[in-house]
Design a protein that fits this description.
about 290 residues; alpha+beta; 3-stranded antiparallel beta sheet; 10 strands
């Protein structure tokens, strides 16, 4: 079927073609004229364009909503990850990637029988292989700090001030409620859990709650770490104490002491002592608390 424009010129052309074909006994071709309204064609075209525009707007609107919702939920995740990456990079904070050794060092009572120089401070008693040159032998706990000096630039600083505030315990307790793999809220366990956390353990696929907990543990670890030049952490266990030994550069060592109930007691800073000497001193340590 062929459509022609409905005007006089078209009609004359069609009749002429029909008469010529009839004169040569050719097959008769019949033409039917249909009226085509240009206004209808224009209207249908406009409606098609409008439908396409509406569909495009709907698609764009849905895409914008998806992006907004995704951004709303992803921004907190991205924010925490950026905080950890920027604040705790290996270059800036290498000590945050140091964790306690896997094996506890169990001390025998070597120092008890080997050393005869007795010292004490605030119910903390121990023996050393050297005789002190410090004149002040006061055991006044109100001063919080006691310094014992020896020959060859050796010294021990005892600090019974608290390194963990009540707010820190509250922060850990809030995390511990939802972490079944954590221990009780005693001081030693809190230190042990926090010191074993490293910034690279956080996963981009973990939940927002898990990311928040990891960030809290990292903040606590940063507070518990005694110095930024820590190069090693070791756990100790004797008959009546537990402790962490932090090895620092320049032959310095800091010991966190805990009693048999795993409560924090004090920290001891050793300068110019060998690890063997520290082991023996800790083995002689007695807490009368």
């Amino acid at each position: 079927m062929i459509y022609f424009k409905n005007d006089e010129q078209t009609k004359k052309s069609i009749l002429l073609c029909h008469s010529r074909a009839s004169g040569r006994s050719a097959p008769i071709v019949t033409f039917r004229l249909f009226r085509v309204n240009p206004e209808n064609e224009k209207s249908e075209h406009v409606q098609t364009l409008l439908r396409d525009m509406i569909m495009k707007k709907k698609i764009i609107t849905v895409c914008i909503l998806v992006v907004c919702v995704a951004t709303y939920f992803l921004i907190p995740h991205i924010k925490i990850i950026l905080i950890i990456k920027n604040s705790y990079s290996k270059d800036k904070t290498p000590y945050m990637y140091v964790v306690p050794s896997d094996e506890e060092i169990v001390n025998n009572k070597i120092g008890v029988n080997k050393y005869n120089n007795n010292y004490s401070f605030c119910n903390i008693k121990f023996k050393t292989p050297f005789k002190a040159i410090t004149k002040n032998t006061s055991d006044d706990c109100q001063k919080n700090i006691k310094i014992i000096r020896f020959a060859n630039c050796k010294s021990i600083i005892i600090d019974n001030g608290k390194t963990m505030t009540p707010k820190m315990k509250t922060m850990f307790a809030a995390i511990n409620k939802t972490r079944s793999n954590m221990h009780t809220n005693n001081d030693f366990d809190i230190y042990n859990v926090c010191l074993n956390v490293t910034p690279d353990k956080i996963s981009i696929f973990s939940s927002l709650g898990e990311k928040t907990k990891m960030l809290t543990l990292l903040l606590l670890k940063q507070s518990f770490t005694p110095a930024i030049d820590v190069i090693g952490i070791y756990k100790y266990k004797t008959n009546n104490i537990s402790s962490f030994r932090f090895d620092l550069r320049d032959n310095r060592h800091i010991i966190y002491l805990f009693n048999s109930n795993n409560n924090y007691i004090a920290n001891l800073s050793f300068y110019m002592f060998t690890v063997e000497e520290i082991d023996n001193i800790l083995s002689s340590c007695v807490l009368n608390i």
